[in-house]
Amino acid sequence: MSLGYLALGWGVPVLIILLLTHICRNAERTIDSTLGPKTEIYAGFLGIMIHEMSHWLLAKMFHHRIVDVKLLVMPWDVNLNEEHPCLGYVNTAYSDHSFYQMIGTAFIGTAPIYGCTAVIYLIYRLFTPNLLKLMTNTVESLISNPLSFSWNDFLYNFVGILKFDSRTLLLVTFAFYLIINITLTGFDLSDADLKSSYTAGIWILIFMSAIILPMVYFQMTDFLNYYLIGFVIWIVAIFSLSILTALLVDFGCHILHFFIN
């Protein structure tokens, strides 16, 4: 039972982070092989900048010292001889004697997942509230009762939303451009990001174990069932919007690759 709670509270967020990274890396590789290695900068410069700004903001919150920042490497400055060319960076330093700063590396390394999700949610909310409502209702339906979900109803409601006037169509087109630009590059955590999060992530697991195991031993499972499971459902609901968006962008990249190549 204790392992189940740990799998929910620690494993689910980690799985979401790795899944988003995998999907967006796949999309980037596809667009690079289709239109060239610098295309992701032109098509995803907003995502790169939000990615790096998220690192910077979380580094500030956890009191890391900012050594050097470059939000975007211009296409003509990219070193294509590198296996994974650097498109932007935030270099930080922290004290090994500060547990707060050390734990912060887990959140700083994965910060683009939170930052890009927040910005995409805001864009949906500002420009396409009806589509946001449909997508959130779809996620809630899949979480609460996946067997009752109907793709026919989803497509019917989606087509109904697409009946825009010219002004709304312009806003929706602009919103989709922003979302694609952010999703294409924003969620892709580098190997350095993941590596910097690894040790702190293990410490978070140990910390959670120190809380959950005694609670299970003293039969405080009602508390865990209400708060921990509720938290996990909230996390899944929030990030499912990003996962669904990332899957659509990845699918679009593969369609483009199919028609061009």
TrEMBL record:
<keyword id="KW-0812">Transmembrane</keyword>
<keyword id="KW-1133">Transmembrane helix</keyword>
<feature type="transmembrane region" description="Helical">
    <location>
        <begin position="226"/>
        <end position="249"/>
    </location>
</feature>
<protein>
    <recommendedName>
        <fullName>Integral membrane protein</fullName>
    </recommendedName>
</protein>
<feature type="transmembrane region" description="Helical">
    <location>
        <begin position="6"/>
        <end position="24"/>
    </location>
</feature>
<keyword id="KW-0614">Plasmid</keyword>
<keyword id="KW-0472">Membrane</keyword>
<feature type="transmembrane region" description="Helical">
    <location>
        <begin position="169"/>
        <end position="189"/>
    </location>
</feature>
<feature type="transmembrane region" description="Helical">
    <location>
        <begin position="103"/>
        <end position="124"/>
    </location>
</feature>
<feature type="transmembrane region" description="Helical">
    <location>
        <begin position="201"/>
        <end position="220"/>
    </location>
</feature>
